[in-house]
Amino acid sequence: MKEEYDFSNKNRLIFTITTVRKDPVKNPRCVGFYYNLVNAITAVEENHGDIYEEGYYPYCVIEAVKEGIYCIDRKEFWFKWNKKENGYKPIPSKPENYRTVVCFGIG
User: Fold this and answer.
1) In whole angstroms, what is the distance from residue 66 CA to residue 75 CA?
2) CA pair distance 59, 15, nearest whole angstrom
3) Pair 45, 79: CB distance under 8 Å
4) DSSP labels for 10-69?
5) For a disulfide at 107, which of 21, 27, 89, 103, Cβ 3.0-4.6 Å?
6) pLDDT in tens, 17-62
7) Is 23 within 8 Å of 98 (Cβ atoms)?
8) What is the dihedral of CA 24, 80, 75, 45, to 10 degrees?
């Protein structure tokens, strides 16, 4: 039975997708993950599953997470909703009010 749930991942990375509100006190929401960064970025930029939720989540972050507990050594990719283009677009860094927040998707 154990083998039934042993999903192999060569790189031991997942790319979590978490939608984020403007206010850090409000709870972010991890909406899914991919094993491939390109697929994760596509899902965010194309707003799969309406993760923007009509303005409820203006930010989105993809985190490259290694297997284990409290993975602090990870990479973040931030996006902000662009009303003019009607989609999430990459931004160069995390919003200032989230500078000290880590582990959005897991942890």
Assistant:
1) 10
2) 16
3) yes
4) TT-EEEEEEEE-SSTTSPPEEEEEESSHHHHHHHHHTTGGGTTGGGT--EEEEEEEESSS
5) 103
6) 999 998 877 889 999 999 999 999 999 999 999 999 989 999 999 9
7) no
8) 140
